Automatic annotation (TrEMBL):
<dbReference type="Pfam" id="PF12766">
    <property type="entry name" value="Pyridox_oxase_2"/>
</dbReference>
<feature type="domain" description="Pyridoxamine 5'-phosphate oxidase Alr4036 family FMN-binding">
    <location>
        <begin position="7"/>
        <end position="143"/>
    </location>
</feature>
<dbReference type="GO" id="GO:0010181">
    <property type="term" value="F:FMN binding"/>
</dbReference>
<dbReference type="InterPro" id="IPR012349">
    <property type="entry name" value="Split_barrel_FMN-bd"/>
</dbReference>
<dbReference type="InterPro" id="IPR024624">
    <property type="entry name" value="Pyridox_Oxase_Alr4036_FMN-bd"/>
</dbReference>
<protein>
    <recommendedName>
        <fullName>Pyridoxamine 5'-phosphate oxidase Alr4036 family FMN-binding domain-containing protein</fullName>
    </recommendedName>
</protein>
Length: 291
């Protein structure tokens, strides 16, 4: 487990995000593509005809891992409230084009049915009311139905659990109620509206509409009320971002913008600062920088 103390940026970040009309953020990833798609010759890029290019898309923040906000319309069984974290979550469809980008240095084959990942990402939030930009940099892990049974699931669980904190006494809650990774995934699915759940029964995202779908279960505009719907759950994923750097830029005062960088220092607070003027607090180094 990580340090028993919350990260020094956590409460303010959540305050700002909860004040947004919609908790949207831009997720940036890196993708390896043929150089020819960008008008470059075959010898460009890595020498094998490929280049690393940025990709970005808008996602919805679904809360911190193990701290799922309760939706009164959610009929899913919830885990006992015995953990908290600074691990950002969002949900996605495994068929989305971004999925291979979350598997750093690993082949995309086999990604559709498995947990794992670890690719580098950046999540950028703009909180309009306080005029603060948050940039969260870290690694993303994909949690699939095999999270409790596969090698990829075990590896992802080990990384995430190292950054989860108990909120009760040792063994309290998870020992009594059996805190379950699979149950947490179902709770995330249940927190979505029936229409949003139904989107996981859409035709394959990004494929030409002229190509026959070939599956009568896939169509736009469906609503799903069954939390174990086989088709939707096969495509549904929770993605967890493990942050290593958090950049906060406060532009609320036009004459005196301020900016801070937080660097994960190991969680125990034993590391020395690496930046001039930096100070390690609760396992994170904090340093003020020019905006």
């Amino acid at each position: 487990m990580s340090t028993a103390t919350a990260a020094p940026w956590r409460s303010l970040f959540l305050e700002h995000v909860e004040g947004m009309k919609s908790p949207e953020f831009t997720l940036s990833t890196i993708r390896r593509v043929p150089a020819s798609r960008y008008g470059m010759d075959a010898g460009s890029g890595d020498g094998q005809g490929f280049v690393q290019v940025p990709r970005a898309r808008t996602c919805i923040f679904r809360g911190m891992w193990a701290n799922l906000a309760v939706n009164p319309k959610n009929d899913a069984e919830l885990n006992p409230d015995c953990y908290e974290s600074e691990l950002l979550t969002f949900t996605t469809d495994v068929r989305m084009d971004k999925m291979p980008e979350l598997w750093e240095g690993q082949p995309s084959g086999g990604v559709e049915g498995s947990s794992g990942g670890g690719g580098p990402v950046e999540a950028v939030f703009w909180a309009d009311a306080p005029m603060v930009q948050w940039r969260v940099r870290g690694r993303a892990y994909v949690l699939a139905p095999d999270v409790e049974s596969s090698e990829g699931g075990r590896a992802a669980r080990d990384v995430l659990q190292a950054r989860m904190r108990r909120t009760g006494a040792e063994g309290e809650g998870d020992a009594k109620g059996g805190w379950s990774w699979a149950r947490e995934l179902t709770a995330h699915f249940g927190n979505l509206s029936p229409g949003m759940r139904g989107s996981f029964r859409n035709p394959p995202p990004g494929t030409p509409v002229a190509v026959p779908v070939g599956d009568d279960s896939l169509a736009l505009g469906q609503k799903v009320t069954d939390l174990q719907d086989a088709v939707a759950r096969r495509h549904f994923r929770v993605v967890v971002i493990v942050p290593f750097e958090v950049d906060r830029c406060d532009l609320s005062d036009p004459e005196r913008g301020r900016r801070w960088l937080y660097r994960f220092a190991g969680g125990e607070g034993s590391e020395k600062p690496v930046y001039p003027g930096g100070q390690v607090v609760d396992g994170w180094e904090k340093v003020e920088t020019w905006p």
